[in-house]
TrEMBL record:
Pfam families: Peripla_BP_4. This is Substrate-binding domain-containing protein. Residues 54-311 form the Periplasmic binding protein domain. Residues 26-50 are annotated as: Disordered. Gene3D superfamilies: 3.40.50.2300. Belongs to the bacterial solute-binding protein 2 family.
Length: 346
C-alpha cells in the first residue's frame, strides 16, 4: 500500500485503494469532547443516504489500542446522520460476547461489525448472522471461516515485524556482529507469532545481525517493565530492541531509564501517542514505531454503511466492497511523526 494514500481517503464513499491506511478519521487529542480529527469531513461524499443500523461488538477495552478501536467506531458513526450505532459493552469472555452478538442479531440490525475476543470461538455466531441475512464486517481478529463474514479488515502483523526488522536492519547494516533483542507480546496469540516471524524474516537479509534474546510480555506497562528489566540484566550489550506493543513499551522505557542504558535504539509497535511524542522529542532510545492503526474501526463503519446502502468503494470500478482489506504497517520516525501524530491513541 503506498504511503501517499494515508490521509483523507476513506472507505464507503471515498476515493481509496483497497488496503490503504485510513488515518483521517480520529485522534485522541480532544476538541469539544470529540477526537480532534473528527472536525474533518467524514468523507468527500458524506451526503446522507439510506438509514442504516450498525451493530458493533468488540472485546473489553482493557488496553489503549482496544479503547481507541471503540472510540474510532463511535466517532465515525457519529459523522453520518443516517447511521445508528448499536454498540455492546465489550467483553473478553467469549460466551458473553457471543450473547451480545446474538442480541444484535435479534434486534435485526442491518450490518454487524465484530472484533472478536477470539476469532475461532466467535466463528459460529458470525455464521449465524450471515445466515440470518445480516452481513458481517470482521474486524482484525479473523474468524475461522470466510463464510462467517462478508468483509475482513485488519492490520498486518507479519508486516509489522517485517518493517520493524527492515528499519533496524538498515540502521545496523554496516555494524559488524550487531545484536538485537525482541520484547514480544502474548505468545499464545497468533498475531504475536506473525510479528515475530516477520521480524525474523527481515533479519535474514542482514547476515551481520543476530537476534540474541527474546522475551514475551503481556501488552501491559507492568509486564513490559518486568520483562525488559530481565532482558537488560541478561544482555549487557546489544544494538537494537524491537518491542511489539507501545503500551508495554511505556514500562520497557521505564526499565531502560532505571538501568541507565542508552547504548541501543528501540522500535515500538502499534502507534500510541506517547510513543510518537517520545519519537518527536528524540530524548530516549525510542526512535520509531510501526503502526497497527486503530482507525481500522472507523473504516469498518464506512464499509458497514456502504454495505447497508448497497454501495461499493469510491474510486474502484467494482460495485461491491472488497472481501478483504489489509492495512499497511507504516514506520513512524522523527522525519514523519508530525503527519501521523493525529492518529496516535492514548
Amino acid at each position: 500500500m503506498p504511503e501517499t494514500s494515508r490521509r483523507g481517503l476513506l472507505f464507503g464513499t471515498a476515493a481509496v485503494s483497497a488496503g490503504a491506511l485510513l488515518t483521517a478519521c480520529t485522534s485522541n487529542e480532544p476538541k469539544t469532547g470529540e477526537p480532534a480529527a473528527n472536525n474533518e469531513p467524514a468523507a468527500p461524499d458524506d451526503k446522507p443516504g439510506k438509514k442504516v443500523t450498525i451493530g458493533f461488538a468488540g472485546p473489553q477495552a482493557d488496553h489503549g489500542w482496544l479503547n481507541a478501536i471503540n472510540e474510532n467506531a463511535k466517532a465515525r458513526a457519529g459523522k453520518y446522520s443516517e447511521v445508528t450505532l448499536e454498540i455492546t459493552e465489550g467483553s473478553n469472555d467469549t460466551a458473553a460476547q457471543i450473547g451480545q452478538v446474538q442480541t444484535l442479531i435479534n434486534k435485526k440490525v442491518d450490518v454487524l461489525v465484530i472484533l472478536p475476543a477470539d476469532g475461532k470461538a466467535l466463528t459460529q455466531v458470525g455464521l449465524q448472522a450471515m445466515k440470518a441475512g445480516i452481513p458481517v464486517i470482521n474486524l482484525d481478529r479473523v474468524f475461522a471461516s470466510p463464510q462467517a463474514y462478508r468483509c475482513w479488515i485488519g492490520g498486518d502483523n507479519y508486516g509489522m515485524g517485517l518493517n520493524a526488522g527492515n528499519f533496524i536492519g538498515e540502521r545496523l547494516k554496516d555494524k559488524k556482529n550487531a545484536k538485537v533483542v525482541e520484547l514480544a507480546g502474548l505468545d499464545n496469540l497468533e498475531l504475536t507469532k506473525q510479528r515475530s516471524q516477520g521480524f525474523a524474516d527481515a533479519l535474514k537479509n542482514y547476515p551481520n545481525i543476530k537476534r540474541v534474546a527474546r522475551q514475551a510480555a503481556d501488552f501491559t506497562v507492568e509486564s513490559g517493565q518486568a520483562k525488559m528489566a530481565q532482558l537488560l540484566q541478561a544482555q549487557k550489550q546489544f544494538d537494537a530492541l524491537w518491542n511489539h506493543d507501545d503500551d508495554q513499551g511505556v514500562g520497557a522505557l521505564r526499565a531502560i531509564q532505571q538501568a541507565g542504558r542508552d547504548d541501543f535504539l528501540m522500535v515500538g509497535g502499534a502507534g500510541a501517542k506517547a510513543a510518537m511524542d517520545a519519537i518527536k522529542a528524540d530524548n530516549s532510545v525510542l526512535k520509531a514505531t510501526v503502526l497497527y492503526p486503530p482507525t481500522m474501526a472507523a473504516s469498518a463503519i464506512d464499509l458497514a454503511r456502504a454495505l447497508g446502502q448497497g454501495k461499493g468503494v469510491g474510486g474502484m470500478s467494482e460495485l461491491e466492497i472488497p472481501a478483504s482489506i489489509t492495512l499497511y504497517s507504516a514506520v513512524v520516525t522523527k522525519d514523519n511523526v508530525d503527519e501521523y501524530l493525529p492518529t496516535g491513541f492514548s
